[in-house]
Amino acid sequence: MGARGQHRPGPDRALAAPRRRARGRDRVRRAVHAPGGARRRPAPPPRGAHRGMRFRRRSSVLPRAPWPKGLERTEPLKGQLWTRSEKALKPPDVHWAWRALAAGVAVLETVLLGWLWFGPAFAVRTVEIRGAHHLSASQVAAAAGVSGGTVISIDGQTAQGHLLDQVWVRTATVQPELPGTVVIKVSEWEPIAAYHAGPSTKLFLMSSQAIILGPTPAGGGLVDIQGPAGKDPGVGERPLDPQLLTALVNMARVFPTLLGQDVAGFVFDSCGNLTLIAKRGWKVYFGRVLTPEEFATLRDKLTALKAIAGQVNYSSPDLLYVNVMNPAEPAAGFKSRQPAPASPAPSSTPTPNPCR
pLDDT per residue over 292-315, tens digit each? Predict the structure, then answer.
């Protein structure tokens, strides 16, 4: 309907486009589509889909929980075992025949080991003893405990320990050799002195460690040491200090060179006083020797004996004693100068302690 037009029956005329003439053949352009995707068409790909996408991790105010201790990263967490089948978790089965074969082999090995351990194949037939002089071969073998067994059952360290428990044995080695031989090598202690308690005539051999090795009928040229009176020492006991014993043996060896006199023996009383007895009968009083400091003074006292050699004739039969308890003031006593002993008068006074 045109401007100022009226409704009337019949078809109305088309509205002319603006700036177009009436009855023109120009058509009105198609209306613009509303914004929005077209129907029944695939959605266009979003922009930047072909580029690498970046994901931003969401941050949290709370701290991140630590990974549980004792759980590796590769181990599944609780609730994830359902992804594995029970067949995969079950250990592979072994056929019963292989199990029976393994059991039979184990039994066979046990029987074979028992036969070798207790059987006659590797029984000890020969025991070689080397280096024993004071102990017999049977005593050494019995102490080592190698008789009556097999070679493979012998423990060398244990047998060596048993041998070292013997007072005569200094070192020992035990070596089993196939098929049935055991070689035992020992080195024994050498006696360096003969010890007796007080006036007792029973002599005992002593090692360099001042240990009693055993009784002996005679000293055999060894240094004679008389200890305090009392019971006889037992085998394995140590009646003297090893350092003192070494000093006495060395003193007996150097005395002939130092003074030209031989040593008959030493007396060590219960108070710790040491006395040297020369073969000519005179004595040397050294005083107490109980501590290492007192042991060290023996060298100075020997030097004092050497210093007065020009004034004292050590070969004189008149010489009675030499006192070097104080090495700075040695003194000598002679038989001809000794006063006559007075008869003791009866007294109710108790006898004083001789060690004071």
Answer: 899 889 999 999 999 998 899 999
Backbone angles phi, psi at 295, to 5 degrees: -65, -40
Residue 265 has pLDDT above 80, yes or no: yes
Q: Residue 220's pLDDT band (boundaries 50, 70, 90)?
A: confident
Candidates 291, 352, 300; CA nearest to 325 is 300
Q: Mean pLDDT, to the nearest integer, of 170-174?
A: 92
- As a whole number of angstroms, the distance between CA 51 and CA 111 comes to 76
Pair type for strands 203-206 and 212-216: antiparallel
pLDDT confidence tier of residue 237, bands split at 50, 70 and 90: very high
Kindly state the tokens that stand for 179.
């098929």
What's the one-letter identity of residue 128? E
> Are 186 and 228 in contact, with CB atoms under 8 Å apart?
no
Alpha helices in 64-95 (DSSP H): 86-89
DSSP state of 186: E
Taking a C-beta distance cutoff of 8 angstroms, is the pair 210, 241 a contact?
yes
The token duo for 187 is 């080195």
User: How far apart, in whole angstroms, are the C-alpha atoms of residue 205 and residue 113?
Assistant: 47
Dihedral of alpha carbons 160, 162, 163, 167, sign: positive
- CA gap 184, 140 in Å, rounded: 8
pTM for this model (two decimals)? 0.62
Compute and round to an integer the Cα radius of gyration of the chain: 57
- What the chain holds in terms of domains, given with CATH numbers, is 126-188 (3.10.20.310), 193-337 (3.40.50.11690)
Contact between 194 and 223 (Cβ < 8 Å): yes
39-44 CB contacts, 8 Å cutoff, 24+ apart: none
Which of residues 269 and 98 earns the better pLDDT score?
269
> Cα-flanking dihedrals φ and ψ of residue 17, to 5°?
-70, 150
pLDDT at 102: 82
Question: What local confidence, expressed as pLDDT, does residue 108 receive?
Answer: 79
Tell me the C-alpha distance between 110 and 179, whole Å.
21
CA geometry: angle at 78 spanning 93 and 74, to 5°?
70
